Amino acid sequence: ESSEHLKDNGEHKKEQLHRMEKKKSSSNRLTQDEKAFTGTVEMSIYVKYIQAMGVHVFCFYIVLCCICQALLLGTNGVLTTWSDDQNRDDASARDFYMTIYGCMGVTQTVIFLSKEIILYLACAKASRLIH
Known about the structure:
Blueprint: H1 2-27, H2 43-53, H3 55-84, H4 91-130
């Protein structure tokens, strides 16, 4: 029993020494270890981030996302209508559908680029405010 007690006591002293060395080495370090959290993000964190971005900017971004999706659906609709058109081989029908399809594609590209720039700037602003 006494040998077990000495063994436990020895291990306890080794553990204390290890902790002291760890504290000593961590105080001399330029960086510190970070904790990684697991699980879900609370809704309050999302709300705080959206508020830091600006609620109006966030809503505008969502509207632009919806417009991009609507334009994507619209271009698919134009292609479907064009392929079902009896006069699809006529030059005037081709020019008509190509013009609509091209304008929708250019508009979609401009809106997509704009929404991504807005999101980037809003997130940069939010990160500066939060951190």
